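Sample entry follows:

:::
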Amino acid sequence: MNNAKLVKQLTAIILTAICLFFPIASHPAIAAETASSTAIYQKRTIHNPDGIGKFYMGREIAKVMGYEGAGWLERPSRGMEEKSARLVNNLDLKPTDIVADIGAGTGYFSFRLASLVPQGKVLAVDVQPEMLNFIESNKQEKNIANVEPVLAKIDNPNLPENSLDLVLMVDAYHEFEYPREMMQGIVKALKTGGRVVSVEYRGENPLILIKGLHKMTQKQVKKEMAAVGLVWKETKDILPQQHLMVFEKKV
């Protein structure tokens, strides 16, 4: 093997190692692969294998968990691990509220929300038709009338404007392929004074054994929500491993 080829291979190995263990945006050799810094999104060919190589506001977007992972979403231990009942009961819902569960998956949270809004409804939103099939099947089995599956696009939640009192995103936002466009659609769908609740594993805590791209810091979440005009209201430290952050749509 000639020296030039060896150097090229070693360089590729080093850059890959850097991207796995350090913040990519801080390395000029890698940042040079991005598009214009004024663009909403940047693409990088060398990136974390758990991500899609697309960056938004300094954060790499994580790969979506496919419908094949539906069993994990419905695992019996989830309620205890994540304190799901505590999460739902701290959303301050009214019986007539209209709620959207974004990235609903199998409807794990959608059906838990439904009982708290008996005169309202829950829009279970997902981009995967297979997930909505799970929800429709569970809806029939559980005989729950106020859960409505909604098929979203990757850049549009497909929700009616000024219709929602609350939007819940549990461990989903970090996988949005088009976070700016999705959040703009969500903001349009919120009533004035409507709330967005973001639940994400704590990116500040390295002891939480979740892949790095599937966690977010409070600082990053606040920055990305502010970019679409949402105002941080409070963070409820009630969950063992996740932030529960509340944002509001102002006039």
Notes: The chain has a mean pLDDT of 85. The chain has two domains: 3-62, 77-249. The chain has nine helices and eleven strands.
